[in-house]
TrEMBL record:
PANTHER family: UDP-3-O-ACYLGLUCOSAMINE N-ACYLTRANSFERASE (PTHR43378), UDP-3-O-ACYLGLUCOSAMINE N-ACYLTRANSFERASE 1, MITOCHONDRIAL-RELATED (PTHR43378:SF2). One of its GO terms (biological process) is lipid A biosynthetic process. InterPro entries: Hexapep (IPR001451), LpxD (IPR007691), Trimer_LpxA-like_sf (IPR011004), UDP_GlcNAc_AcTrfase_non-rep (IPR020573). This is UDP-3-O-acylglucosamine N-acyltransferase. It is an enzyme of class 2 (transferase). Keywords: Acyltransferase, Lipid A biosynthesis, Lipid biosynthesis, Lipid metabolism, Repeat, Transferase. Signal peptide: none annotated. The keyword Lipid metabolism applies. Residues 21-89 form the UDP-3-O-[3-hydroxymyristoyl] glucosamine N-acyltransferase non-repeat region domain. One of its GO terms (cellular component) is membrane. It comes from Dokdonia sinensis. The keyword Mitochondrion does not apply. It catalyses: a UDP-3-O-[(3R)-3-hydroxyacyl]-alpha-D-glucosamine + a (3R)-hydroxyacyl-[ACP] = a UDP-2-N,3-O-bis[(3R)-3-hydroxyacyl]-alpha-D-glucosamine + holo-[ACP] + H(+).
Length: 338
């Protein structure tokens, strides 16, 4: 797929300085630019590369004026970084704009779908599935009975969506993710053997949610596991049964959230965080990586450690912890002197 400088300038509402007909088909870092690639310059530390880059087109701020001769064609915009991000989004939309039903695939007679469906080979749509417009389902995806998926959603290869799941609009579910697996519900009998508790609830995912590769969201025992609008989940996260995650919260990879915990809005949770079950985490909470949360957390707290406590207190305590050998030596010396 090729674009000319003039076409790109039109998308970005920019101005071409150089050859408007030069074409690009790939993206590159400015220091690694080759003929046929597009790059951008926004950080002054990289300015020297614009005089040596072989990239065919470079996006720059309107204020940029070259001090030496350059070979690359410029597209001047108000903000080069934001413009490049906009272009990446546009490129991704074009790349993902597949339509049609590939074979072999299976669509239940009771399934319904909207306009511009893409259904990749070896995918499965169960009974009473409802898909909105512009839904893209890549190969080897399983969508169980009574699943609803809204408009403009993308389900990447190999994802599995169990029955009864309810997914909103503009949701991205990446490869290997599993939505609606059974929650971890078992009860021991008098002999210590475990009996499975049926998991009869579902998963609700609201609009503009991203679910990373390999992430699992368990269905509720009763009711719903709920992922509110705008939530961003990284790869390899475990969300247990009956968890609720508030709007626009972001969680990094390898975090685990145990059952029935409620997480508030606009929280930022680092990687490898462990969160116990049946607790409430407030709004705008920040949890540093590898922390352990085992209690209710108030709005706005910043935490670190396991068990986690106030971030500032943790940093001060860590300084003392690093100095413990010296302190022990000092105490031993004092005892000898006495």
């Amino acid at each position: 797929m090729k674009f000319t400088a003039a076409q790109i300038a039109g998308i970005l509402e920019g101005t071409v300085v150089g050859d408007p007909d030069v074409e690009v088909s790939k993206l590159a870092k400015i220091e690694e630019g080759l003929p046929g690639t597009l790059t951008f310059l926004s950080n002054p530390k990289y300015t020297s590369f614009i005089y040596t880059t072989s990239a065919s087109i470079t996006i720059v701020d309107n204020s940029f004026e070259p001090e030496n001769e350059i070979a690359t064609t410029l597209i001047k915009v108000e903000d080069a970084r934001n413009a490049f991000s906009k272009l990446l989004e546009y490129y991704n939309q074009v790349k993902l704009n597949k339509t049609g039903i590939e074979q072999p695939s299976f669509i239940s007679d009771s399934a319904v779908y909207g306009d511009n469906l893409y259904l990749g080979a070896f995918s499965y749509l169960g009974e009473n599935v409802k898909l909105g417009n512009n839904v893209k389902i890549y190969p080897n995806v399983y969508i169980g009975d009574n699943v609803t998926i809204g408009d403009n959603c993308v389900v990447f290869a190999g994802a599995k969506i169990y029955s009864e799941s309810d997914i909103g609009n503009t949701v991205y579910i990446h490869s290997g993710a599993i939505v609606g697996a059974d929650g971890f519900g078992f009860t021991p009998d008098e002999n210590g053997a475990y009996t499975k508790v049926p998991q009869t609830g579902n998963v609700i995912i609201e609009d503009h949610v991203d679910i990373g590769a390999g992430t699992t969201i368990d269905r509720a025992t009763l009711g719903s596991t709920i992922i509110r609008k705008g939530v961003k989940l990284d790869n390899q996260i475990q969300i247990a049964h009956n968890v609720e995650i508030g709007e626009h919260t972001a969680i990094a990879a390898q975090t685990g959230v145990a059952g029935s915990t409620k997480i508030g809005k606009h929280c930022l949770i680092g990687g490898q965080v462990g969160i116990a079950g049946h607790i409430v985490i407030g709004d705008r909470v920040r949890v540093q990586a590898q922390s352990g949360i085992g209690r209710n957390i108030k709005d706005g707290e910043v935490l670190q450690g396991s068990p986690a406590f106030n971030y500032g207190d943790w940093n001060r305590s860590y300084v003392h912890f690093k100095n413990l050998p010296k302190m022990v030596d000092l105490l031993n010396q004092i005892e000898k002197n006495n």
